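User: My collaborator sent over this chain with a note saying "see what the structure looks like." That's all I know about it. Can you take a look?
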Amino acid sequence: MAKRLLCSPRQPNVVNIKFRQASFDLLSDLLINSNKRNKDNLNSLPICSGSFKEKRLVEYIFLITQELGLDPLVGYHAVELLQRFMVKHLWDLLTAPTPQGAAAAEPRSYEDVIFDKLKDKLPLILFSCVQLANKLSLHCHMINSSTAVRFLHSVGLSVSKQTVLESELMVFKTLEFNLNVLNPLTYVEILLEVLGHNEPSIPVERIYNLCHPVLRFITLQRTAIYDALLRVTAQCVCPSREQREMFVSVTEDCMLLGVGVIAVATFIHYVRKWEQIVGELSNITGITRKSISDFAHVTLVHIVSSSSPVAQT
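Assistant: Without extra context I'll predict from the sequence alone. Here is the result:
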């Protein structure tokens, strides 16, 4: 009997999507590594985790990647870079010694000045995150400085090549040169590769094609979906502050998001394999069938409601 891949309690880069090509040993290493990185990340979440994955920021990043013809993986990676950069950058700014005379600049506080300046720089920061993510992509379609400046001019940002490079370097340094962050699309790809290895009859290629719009939908509707999932998990309409704080780790769990995306795509495209695939995902990741089903159910409800005529009026 062929060996099966299991990950003991609950990632990576199988980006070239030709499934069933990776060896057992490679997949095993990827799965173990992804599980460890995911758990390490959840155990060291910073304050304000997820605060900069707000819908408008994510839309802006997705539009940049689409306009420049970049791989979808770049957009998801850029969202994660932005989150980490903004938390670290704001912390550095707000904990730095207050410049002499700044306290006298009433009625505006020093913090207000910082946020106003950062707001003006935000569009360029988003673009810099996309640029850095793109340079790490194995589907690398390089955007040179001339193309970058032309694009930024087309969206109303009058910047020079020097400014673009300085912004990119600022993000790079603030992240302490660590750009290898978790990425939900990569988790989806690895889990599908493992599914295809364990059960060759599962049409992972067709499921993967549907995973893209599902993951995009969840990412853009992140707040509504996770709020609904929290209410299901807490079994109450108005969860307490403590419950919300404890639930933050769920919103940042890439493994849970990966299995949830695959479960939703399976239900839409291949419902007769639903129970089997949910069972396989549970065995692979250690996430319970109920948790996977709850995530899928909440997401499907939002997909249906957003597609209804009432929701579109």
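A starting point for your reply to your collaborator: The chain has a mean pLDDT of 87.
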